[in-house]
């Protein structure tokens, strides 16, 4: 996800790209609490928003940061770093806020902690003209409830709720911030391992398999390439299968076999791990060869994906069910695809006009 962050400078400072800030706080809510309840009487605290509830607030200290509608934001016609904030930019910021929240929510869930809500801001990169996340996300940006229990809240709200600021109370606030700091480090650790093993029937399919491996690497997935033929050496194929089943690491096998694909079906019939067929089809016989991957005997559950990139993506989606870091890369990729389409449409409309 595009941000203003460039690199770490020291323990307490980082270097960021110069941005002109868009004076809007984007607030994303999963659970109803705080000011939302005051503005929406009748809504019970703890109500869960699905989909996420999005709100915008204009940064105006003199007027206590009033809530704005999308129409107000568009009517303001903000122009920053040469970019006028139109519907396209508003949609990008909206979608990006949701994606950022969901990624952080997924990460905090690994610590049995509920991300209740969050506020962030965007800016326009003065060099590229792009909308980027240009905010520091810290313990003043969100509400965190361990085990979904408000009484255990660890964020800045603990300080706001103090009836009296005493040394003892400040020590409690300090412990809460330390708790968050320690666990933020844990968010970068996968809770479950996983890998992809690509089996090819011949080294003539190596280029096809290398594409799968490259795509797997982009999702942070370890990927191994092996050569084996289920037709010519079924015993060796099953030995390789057993090798990867024996260490307990969740594994997805991708079978790459041209002509008659026996590799995928044989693997699928002898392992409970997921198997993906990704045959390297040729122009001359591809229409006939693909049926050996599609028409399978009963009891076999291997799927068929023709694109190497798509095969890697499907494998990442399976592993992402238990690995929040892989899931997050997928979520970011989905956002970036959407943004690129949105920008392409905007550019085409501008050309048409």
UniProtKB/TrEMBL annotation:
**What Pfam family is a match for this entry?**
SAICAR_synt
**Provenance organism:** Ilyodon furcidens (goldbreast splitfin)
Gene3D superfamilies xref list:
3.40.50.1970, ATP-grasp fold, B domain
What binding partners and quaternary form does the record give? Homooctamer.
User: Quick one: signal sequence residues?
Assistant: none
User: Which intervals hold domain PurE?
Assistant: 194-341
Report the domain of life of the source organism: Eukaryota
What does the UniProt keyword field contain?
Answer: ATP-binding, Decarboxylase, Ligase, Lyase, Multifunctional enzyme, Nucleotide-binding, Purine biosynthesis
Nucleotide-binding listed as a keyword: yes
Q: What protein family is recorded?
A: In the C-terminal section; belongs to the AIR carboxylase family. Class II subfamily.
Q: Which SMART domains match?
A: AIRC
Its pathway is: Purine metabolism; IMP biosynthesis via de novo pathway; 5-amino-1-(5-phospho-D-ribosyl)imidazole-4-carboxamide from 5-amino-1-(5-phospho-D-ribosyl)imidazole-4-carboxylate: step 1/2; Purine metabolism; IMP biosynthesis via de novo pathway; 5-amino-1-(5-phospho-D-ribosyl)imidazole-4-carboxylate from 5-amino-1-(5-phospho-D-ribosyl)imidazole (carboxylase route): step 1/1
Q: What is this protein called?
A: PurE domain-containing protein
């Amino acid at each position: 996800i595009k941000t203003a962050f460039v690199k770490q400078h020291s323990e307490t400072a980082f270097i960021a790209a110069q941005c002109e800030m868009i004076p809007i706080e984007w607030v994303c809510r999963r659970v109803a609490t705080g000011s939302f309840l005051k503005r929406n009487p009748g809504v019970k605290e703890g109500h869960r928003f699905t989909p996420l509830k999005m709100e915008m607030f204009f940064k105006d200290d003199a007027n206590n940061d009033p809530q704005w509608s999308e129409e107000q934001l568009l009517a303001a016609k903000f122009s920053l770093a040469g970019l006028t904030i139109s519907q396209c930019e508003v949609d990008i910021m909206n979608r990006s806020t949701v994606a950022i929240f969901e990624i952080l929510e997924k990460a905090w869930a690994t610590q049995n902690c509920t991300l209740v809500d969050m506020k962030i801001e965007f800016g326009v990169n003065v060099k590229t003209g792009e909308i980027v996340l240009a905010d520091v996300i810290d313990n003043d940006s969100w509400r965190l409830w361990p085990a979904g229990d408000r009484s255990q809240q660890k964020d800045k709200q603990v300080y706001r709720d103090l009836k009296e600021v005493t040394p003892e109370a400040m020590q409690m606030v300090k412990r809460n911030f330390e708790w968050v700091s320690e666990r933020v480090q844990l968010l970068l650790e996968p809770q479950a391992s996983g890998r992809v093993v690509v089996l090819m029937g011949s080294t003539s399919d190596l280029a096809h398999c290398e594409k799968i491996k490259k795509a797997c690497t982009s999702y942070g997935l370890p990927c191994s390439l092996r050569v084996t033929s289920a037709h010519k050496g079924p015993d060796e194929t099953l030995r390789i299968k057993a090798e990867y089943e024996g260490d307990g690491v969740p594994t997805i096998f991708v079978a790459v076999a041209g002509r008659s694909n026996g590799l995928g079906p044989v693997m699928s019939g002898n392992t409970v791990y997921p198997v993906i067929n990704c045959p390297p089809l040729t122009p001359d016989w591809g229409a006939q060869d693909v049926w050996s991957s599609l028409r399978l005997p009963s009891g076999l559950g291997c799927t068929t994906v023709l694109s190497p990139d798509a095969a890697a993506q499907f494998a990442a989606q399976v592993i992402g069910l238990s690995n929040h870091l892989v899931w997050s890369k997928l979520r970011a990729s989905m956002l970036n695809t959407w943004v690129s389409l949105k920008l392409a449409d905007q550019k085409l409309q501008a050309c048409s006009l």
